[in-house]
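Incident log, support desk, overnight shift.

02:14 A customer reports that sequence design results differ from what the structure should imply. Their input is reproduced verbatim below. On-call engineer (initials T.W.) acknowledged and began investigating.
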């Protein structure tokens, strides 16, 4: 059996090493929608991404801020993969939160060879906005395909 500290280390490694997360949202009627988005984590409880406010997942979180996130490496051999499951609340960022968030997102973007992002690129009339999900709980896939709650900070 994997102990709690090993599971927490697995969760941190997965968050640190992946580029995309699967973002699960629901519209006001509860219809689910999932989207892969490039993300920048701040520690292990905040996840930032850039999207169009017209994207279905962006419209959904405007109506329902509760989201779910899964981060995993889909290239792992069958039966060996690990994943981090996150319950969170998400919002479009504005004001000081936007200033802090765009620095975090831009830094990771440039580390991966992509462009630098500025505040002007994620505020009207630009076609993108910056979003943040703040985790309320994490779990990892443990033995016998069970999700095991972990504290990841």
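02:41 Re-run completed on a clean worker. Output:
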């Amino acid at each position: 059996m994997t102990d709690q500290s090993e599971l927490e280390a697995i969760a941190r490694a997965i968050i640190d090493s992946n580029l995309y997360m699967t973002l699960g949202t629901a519209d006001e009627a509860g219809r689910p929608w999932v989207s892969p988005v490039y993300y920048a984590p701040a520690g292990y409880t905040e996840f930032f991404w850039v999207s169009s406010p017209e994207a279905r997942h962006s419209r959904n979180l405007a109506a329902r801020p509760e989201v779910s996130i899964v981060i995993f490496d889909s290239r792992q051999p069958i039966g060996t993969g690990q994943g981090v499951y996150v319950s969170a609340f998400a919002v479009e960022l504005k004001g000081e939160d936007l200033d802090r968030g765009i620095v975090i997102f831009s830094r990771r973007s440039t580390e991966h060879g992509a462009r630098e992002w500025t505040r002007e690129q994620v505020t009207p009339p630009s076609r993108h906005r910056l979003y943040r999900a703040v985790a309320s709980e994490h779990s990892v896939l443990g033995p016998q395909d069970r999700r095991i709650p972990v504290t990841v900070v």
